[in-house]
Amino acid sequence: MRECLGLARAAKQRGDSPVGAILVRNGEIIARGIEGGKTHRDITYHAEIEAIREATALLNTQNLSDCIMYTTHEPCIMCAYVIRHTRIPTIVMGLTSGDIGGASSAYPLLKDTGIKKWGTPPQLITGVLEEACKALNID
């Protein structure tokens, strides 16, 4: 999570939302993502999606079922769809996101069991370094 915090600080310094994400495989960081929607003028540049893009390119597969995602914020609904599609089994997050969250909103894709091709929902671990993550959101 400390790596995610560093990435989130970099995003904040360039004017983006302070979100950072990493993917870990066999105890090693294999991909990093920095929030970049404002920088790239493209809403799909979320930290979680950027980490997934990097990991799928590195591994040459969309199956990330042997990875763990760490992120400063609960993945949004859009990111939740990508996470489920790539079968990431564990998400470790600092903060929940409320009405736009992929687990805590009215559209909890990270918890959905109705879409059979996605299989079992990921394990969600919240509150990791929560105070440090909150501090990034204070101007």
Automatic annotation (TrEMBL):
<keyword id="KW-0479">Metal-binding</keyword>
<dbReference type="InterPro" id="IPR002125">
    <property type="entry name" value="CMP_dCMP_dom"/>
</dbReference>
<dbReference type="Pfam" id="PF00383">
    <property type="entry name" value="dCMP_cyt_deam_1"/>
</dbReference>
<dbReference type="GO" id="GO:0016787">
    <property type="term" value="F:hydrolase activity"/>
</dbReference>
<dbReference type="InterPro" id="IPR016193">
    <property type="entry name" value="Cytidine_deaminase-like"/>
</dbReference>
<protein>
    <submittedName>
        <fullName>tRNA-adenosine deaminase</fullName>
    </submittedName>
</protein>
<dbReference type="GO" id="GO:0008270">
    <property type="term" value="F:zinc ion binding"/>
</dbReference>
<dbReference type="InterPro" id="IPR016192">
    <property type="entry name" value="APOBEC/CMP_deaminase_Zn-bd"/>
</dbReference>
<keyword id="KW-0862">Zinc</keyword>
<feature type="domain" description="CMP/dCMP-type deaminase">
    <location>
        <begin position="1"/>
        <end position="107"/>
    </location>
</feature>
